[in-house]
Amino acid sequence: MTARKLTTLENRAIAHGLNVSDGHPRMPLTRGQRAIVAELGDLFDQAAKRPFHEIEEEAHRSFLHGLGQHAAPVGTGRLVTCYSSSVAMDITARALAERTGSVALVHPTFDNIPDLLRARRLHLVPVPEHRFEEGLGELPPEVGAVFVTTPNNPTGWVLGAEPLARLAAWCAGTGRVLAMDTCFRGQDTRAQYDTYRILEDSGAEWVVIEDTGKLWPMQELKAGFLAWGEGTRLELAEAFDDVLLSVSPVVLLLITRLAHDAVDGGYAELARLLAENRRTLAETIDSTGLVLKEPDSRISVAQLELPESIGSATDFYDRLVEHNVHVLPCEAFHWARNTDGGRDVRVALARAPEEVRAAAAMLAEVSVRMRADGRR
Ligand SMILES: Cc1ncc(COP(=O)(O)O)c(C=O)c1O
């Protein structure tokens, strides 16, 4: 049986119940964010008056510099704004398919990444996270690109600066494109070294997808950024032009304001909320048989491993839905071998603390009941 698509399950959670399913931020606005939203009328006035490219460049600079990305290609024409990171991903997949028939992709990762690559007829070779640190020496020669998600969803794993430099040098030396999804980097300072400096110095052809949509509870007012290198010979600008003219300048102005607010304490506040929610989850499931898998992860999701006595992650998910609580079973993250995720569920943490507390209590209760049922 193939795993159910993650977005399909996330949509069920949006429809009803306690939603700790999708990774989009759904906690209450902070005081700073509420003040920014209250200025929306002014942002509309500015959007109508100021040149679009000035507004866009300001958003790129504020967002990327605020995350340590000082060498990002702001103002070069090699950085474009999409409605979402998935749109940037689709453009990347299309451009990669014109170059190669085969891509090495991190395993596990969020399933819409392999799905969008496969939709462009790309053959995928799974690569476990640790191999990006140890070297990809024996990849088949037909693999023309390497794709890595860092921080990775759902594990929170981060590719460090030194392994990235080695990977980029290897890609440059073997003529492979290096593509990166860094959508979760705003949640983990360990991913905020200047990626673009390393990529550009390596001489590799590279593409990076960034995202404002995982950070702030903006009701889907967000953007995905797609950047590429001076020496990258993929037809990304052409593919982008086929898809859209521009995103809303109001959204870009909002991103500029939110990025400044984030640097002035908003990122620290987000990190505190995620740490508090991760701690609540860990404490509530303690001695229920559920285990927090990556306690050191900083991103806005947590994986729990189920005890042997609870059937599969999908069984556990189905029982939770009966109680109106929505998590994600992790099979589909393991896009090449669904069974690898068969004992794990993912819980979203970018929520109000009371929502995570209520969901954690139900996870604990259902786990204890299912274990008791399993022993009968
Ligand atoms: C790592 C990663 N990249 C990209 C996306 C796509 O984000 P969006 O649905 O906002 O386009 C997701 C979705 O959760 C994700 O986990």
UniProtKB/TrEMBL annotation:
Keyword Transcription included in the entry's annotation: no
Pfam families reported for this sequence: Aminotran_1_2
UniProt keyword annotation of rRNA processing present: no
Domain named Aminotransferase class I/classII large: residues: 59-360
Protein keywords: Aminotransferase, Transferase
InterPro entries listed in its UniProt record: Aminotransferase_I/II_large (IPR004839), PyrdxlP-dep_Trfase (IPR015424), PyrdxlP-dep_Trfase_major (IPR015421), PyrdxlP-dep_Trfase_small (IPR015422)
One MF annotation (Gene Ontology) recorded for this entry: transaminase activity
Record protein name field: Aminotransferase class I/II-fold pyridoxal phosphate-dependent enzyme
Species this chain originates from: Actinomadura fibrosa
